[in-house]
Automatic annotation (TrEMBL):
It is found in: Cell membrane. Its main location: membrane. This is Putative P2Y purinoceptor 10. It comes from the Eukaryota. It is a multi-pass membrane protein. InterPro entries: GPCR_Rhodpsn (IPR000276), GPCR_Rhodpsn_7TM (IPR017452). The lineage of its organism: Eukaryota, Metazoa, Chordata, Craniata, Vertebrata. The chain crosses the membrane at residues 24-47, 59-83, 103-124, 136-157, 185-209, 230-250, 273-296. One of its GO terms (cellular component) is plasma membrane. Putative receptor for purines coupled to G-proteins. GO terms for biological process: phospholipase C-activating G protein-coupled receptor signaling pathway; positive regulation of Rho protein signal transduction. Keywords: Cell membrane, Disulfide bond, G-protein coupled receptor, Glycoprotein, Membrane, Receptor, Transducer, Transmembrane, Transmembrane helix.
Length: 347
């Protein structure tokens, strides 16, 4: 009897209705969409077209920008759903949007880790950097997409069963398919170790080593400036990782245990579910914070953006000047014509 009572209490707490999540998700995605779309589109344009040097983690930045854009482009559908509470599109599109969210999260984690690791390695081993080939970065990036893409597949699959029974629901309203405790532990372990623990250890070590290198080495001023740029980039990768991904992954094991009805304390269950919603919104901010890595930490990006941005502005100014000149000439011609007519009437 007591066991049944505990199970019913857990079910009630786990299936709590939290209406605030709709307005929170809609607001968060609306605030992220325009800045994320513009920043990552411009970043991808500059990185692909105007940066000839494909070292200094540029290939990883391009892939990071692609991962962010893929998620950002799905945000209008998410905003529509959280405002209208209705999914009129195909089931496959819902699963695709759901998949892109987690693909972006873990691909971003991997590419931020690669950026931090490569900048640190090239700084400490400059002679190795000269022999490094661009195809190595391309191969690493391709391997990341394959591994992360495969690892994220179970996440939409676990939601697919509920979507088949409720075709008008999507995203947060989809129930999590019940899986065995062993499968749940395995999934959480892979996500936490591969997607959080290992990257945070690598990024922390890179940050520490880069900072230590900046303090210890007495080198020419030009090399010192290069070390400072590397330090700022590695530090920015660490900040993005800590702000966006650390809270979510600290809460994720407890969220999965709540879904497996491990806990019976209703207050703890409520807190875990509330924090999951908030931390998931925080994780989406990486789409806006990632461009900071290339805007402010890469000298080539700033130089090329300033150069080509100034060219665009100059062309706009020239167009305006030419239009004003044409308008002025038209006015002068009209004035001359009127004077000529007046003179002819006088004659």
């Amino acid at each position: 009897m007591g066991s049944n009572s505990n199970n019913s209490t857990r079910a009630k707490c786990t299936d709590l209705q939290m209406p605030f999540q709709y307005s929170l998700y809609a607001t968060t995605y609306a605030l992220i969409f325009i800045p994320g779309l513009l920043a990552n589109s411009v970043a991808l344009w500059v990185l692909c077209r105007f940066i000839s040097k494909k070292n200094k983690a540029i290939i990883f930045m391009i892939n990071l920008s692609v991962a962010d854009l893929a998620h950002v482009l799905s945000l209008p559908l998410r905003i529509y759903y959280y405002i209208n509470h209705h999914w009129p599109f195909q089931r496959a599109l819902c699963l695709l949007c759901f998949y892109l969210k987690y693909l972006n999260m873990y691909a971003s984690i991997c590419f931020l880790t690669c950026i931090s690791l490569q900048r640190c390695f090239f700084l400490l081993k400059p002679f190795k950097a000269r022999d490094w080939k661009r195809r190595y970065d391309v191969g690493i990036s391709a391997a990341i997409w394959v591994v992360v893409g495969t690892a994220c597949l179970p996440l939409p699959i676990l939601r697919n069963a509920d979507l088949a029974n409720n075709t008008e629901s999507c995203f947060a309203d989809l129930g999590l398919q019940h899986i065995s405790m062993a499968s749940s532990i395995g999934m959480v372990t892979v996500a936490e170790i591969g997607g959080f623990v290992l990257p945070v250890v690598i990024i922390t070590c890179c940050t520490w080593k880069t900072r230590k290198s900046l303090k210890e080495f007495q080198v020419p001023s030009q090399n010192t400036e290069e070390r400072k740029k590397a330090w700022r980039m590695v530090l920015m990768c660490a900040v993005v990782f800590i702000v966006c991904f650390t809270p979510y992954h600290l809460n994720f094991p407890f969220f999965m245990m709540v879904k497996q009805h491990v806990f019976s304390n209703c207050s703890f269950i409520k807190s875990t579910l509330y924090l999951h919603i908030i931390f998931l919104c925080l994780a989406n901010l990486n789409c806006c914070l990632d461009p900071v890595v290339y805007y402010f930490m890469t000298s080539e990006f700033c130089d090329q953006f300033s150069e080509h941005g100034s060219l665009v502005l100059q062309s706009c100014v020239r167009c305006k000047d030419s239009n004003l000149e044409i308008h002025q000439r038209k006015e002068d011609l009209q004035t001359i014509s009127l004077e000529f007519l007046d003179d002819s009437k006088t004659i």
